[in-house]
Design a protein that fits this description.
single chain; three-stranded antiparallel β-sheet; eight-stranded mixed β-sheet; 4 helices; alpha+beta
């Protein structure tokens, strides 16, 4: 890849850089100059809290401006717990912190699911996704940090109901789709490992 020019065109909540670049092609030649905007998002860590004793998952629901702007019929989305990785933090530390802040739960054990780019055609966001063992007894309620204007509703779902929501289209974001599909396949194994 050869970068001919780059400029920061937005430095607000979203940082956006415009690149003028060319890249090598499969036939060995080079593309014409391409102008591409990239949202600089950084690394995100996410966790699907799973209580193996009661076979329950914790999902959070919150307003998402992107879904609203896209005229999605229900812009309060069901999601995994997630947060941006700050300098000096590990992804494991982030998911444990965010689980307390967004769902009031303590992560007892973590199982990695995947690392992936959420939208590599236009965004640098790299997601580290986990399943986290929790005790789901008595969980649920309204959470979030006032300093970040968060208004988050944490709910406890039986695994069966969560997978039904996955199948009927109520889950419409990639990290939660991936996490629930993974759990559908792996819950027997991790339940056995976590509970001995």
């Amino acid at each position: 890849v050869k970068v001919k020019n780059q400029e920061r065109i937005s430095d607000g909540y979203l940082k956006v850089t415009r690149y003028l670049l060319t890249h090598e092609q499969y036939d060995g030649d080079w593309t014409d100059s391409l102008s591409r905007e990239v949202m600089e998002r950084g690394e995100v860590a996410a966790v699907l809290p799973f209580g193996p004793v009661r076979n329950e998952v914790i999902l959070i629901e919150q307003f998402r401006v992107g879904a609203w702007s896209a005229e999605w019929p229900q812009p309060w989305l069901l999601e995994c717990v997630a947060g941006i990785v700050e300098e000096g933090e590990t992804v494991e530390e982030v998911v444990c912190r965010e689980a307390r802040e967004e769902a009031g739960c303590k992560i007892l054990q973590l199982e990695p699911i995947a690392r992936y780019f959420s939208t590599p055609g236009a965004c640098t966001e790299l997601v580290s996704l986990f399943c986290g063992r929790v005790d789901s007894t008595g969980l649920g309620g309204i959470y979030g940090l006032e300093t970040e204007n968060e208004d988050i509703f944490a709910t406890v779902w039986s695994l069966q109901d969560a997978l039904s929501a996955l199948r009927n289209g109520a889950i419409c974001n990639s990290m939660t789709l991936i996490a629930l599909q993974w759990l559908a396949d792996q819950h027997g194994r991790i339940t056995e490992e976590w509970l001995g």
